[in-house]
Specification:
Length: about 425
């Protein structure tokens, strides 16, 4: 890997760890404040909101200036969101500010890979960065779980009130530790070398910008390979983005776990995803990415199998396998989507289109779950509905891909050959 890739990975690790720790901390803060269940469930769609709203401008913004500075600015915004939470701003509002930073960060994070690395290293780079991201999720949710544990809260209370006599709710100090990781990530971002990529002037005409974004969406959804990869990653992230809270809620109902205990199961999913992602980066070539489509239906079945379980050991094993299945499917499809997007419209714009679709799916599923949240039937119904939806939609995606091969054999063959040739360069 080229110089600078290590810096990208390090910054991504710190920023992603903070994202996931803050999610658990925000859940803990809402529970501490006696908020309704729907507010905790709403953290997921609230985070996704700015991804959807800013999608038309996030890509051009990432392409208009060096992406290392875009990422540094984004992490600074996330740190500001933590500070808002510390100052007593409602966790949903403060967490939405972190979502704002994340929405700007994502096109730059993935776009810089296509600028820094040759196509031949994209799948492997995606495997490593996704694997490291998942590792940060594991540590992040565990760190967040430890921070909101009774022991930690009692320790903070003793230090703040007894030793230092600081007024106010000591629980509001929890986001301070998370904020330090965002600051670290922003500093690391500044050490990423200049890729030398050509910068594109940021459009000043909003209608033209929206029209351009719509055209980019159309290009990806009409591309015979891009549409398959985009549909797969959109569905994957729509489900997995909400699954981390659903797992917390399911563990509370089925196993009687508190937030700290349930966060370990979220970590188990992440470990499995990391293993699957790294394995795929070595075993699946870019031109063979569509072969992983059937794994999507398997993932849906695994989610539904979680419903009858009451054993923590069996649940952990099932979640580990589900995570590995998802990770093995995600990495090659994500790399294929980046490859097609880069060829069709440029890195930043293609990632913005990808984020728009994926986060819109997260937002939609999250809103539906927030409305239905409220105890026993909601959690089990959500798992069954999510699993069934994944099975049906992944079967339809597979049928669409086979239809593309049948009706447009030359075009699909050409695009797959292009992917293989670019990978071999």
């Amino acid at each position: 890997m080229k110089r600078g890739f290590t810096s990208i990975m390090s910054a991504q690790f710190a920023s992603s760890l903070a994202d996931n720790a803050l999610f658990v901390v925000a859940v803990g803060l809402l529970q501490h404040q006696g908020a309704a269940d729907w507010q905790s469930a709403a953290l997921v769609p609230v985070f996704a909101f700015f991804y959807v709203v800013l999608a038309p401008v996030a890509g051009p913004f990432a392409d208009a200036m060096p992406k290392r500075w875009v990422m540094a600015i984004s992490n600074a915004i996330k740190a500001a969101g933590c500070l808002m939470m510390c100052l007593g701003v409602h966790p949903l509002l403060a967490y939405s500010a972190v979502g704002l930073g994340a929405a700007i960060y994502s096109p730059a994070k993935y776009g810089i890979l296509t600028e820094l690395l040759p196509t031949s290293q994209l799948v492997k780079a995606n495997g490593w960065i996704e694997g490291l991201t998942i590792a940060s999720i594991v540590l992040g949710v565990l760190l967040g779980g430890l921070m909101v544990s009774e022991t930690s809260l009692q320790l903070i209370f003793c230090l703040v009130h007894t030793r230092f006599a600081i007024p106010g709710d000591p629980v509001l100090l929890l986001p301070v530790a998370v904020m330090l990781f965002y600051v670290l990530a922003a500093i690391i971002n500044t050490f990423i070398p200049d890729t030398g990529a050509v910068l594109h002037r940021f459009p000043k005409n909003l209608p033209a910008l929206l029209s351009s974004f719509g055209e980019c969406n159309r290009l990806l959804w009409h591309d015979r390979l891009g549409q398959i990869a985009l549909a797969t990653t959109t569905l994957f992230w729509g489900v997995s983005g909400n699954l981390r809270y659903i797992v917390l809620a399911w563990a509370a109902v089925a196993l009687g776990y508190n937030t700290t205990q349930a966060s370990t199961l979220v970590g188990v999913v992440a470990i499995g995803t990391a293993a699957g992602a790294i394995l795929a980066s070595f075993r699946v070539r870019l031109g063979d990415a569509p072969r992983v489509i059937p794994l999507g239906a398997v993932l849906g079945v695994l989610l539904m199998l979680l419903v009858p379980l009451t054993s923590a050991s069996w649940a952990a094993a099932l979640l580990l396998v589900a995570g590995a299945t998802g990770g093995y499917m995600l990495v090659p499809m994500n790399a294929l989507l980046q490859h097609r997007g880069h060829n069709l419209m440029g890195a930043g714009r293609s990632i913005a289109v990808q984020n728009f679709n994926e986060q819109a799916c997260i937002l939609l599923i999250g809103l539906l779950y927030s409305v239905s949240a409220g105890g026993y039937p909601g959690v089990y119904f959500a798992l069954i509905a999510l699993g069934a939806m994944v099975v049906v939609l992944m079967i339809l995606i597979g049928v669409k891909y086979r239809n593309n091969i049948s009706k447009h054999p030359r075009e699909v063959t050409r695009l797959l050959k292009m992917a293989r040739l670019d990978e071999d360069l």
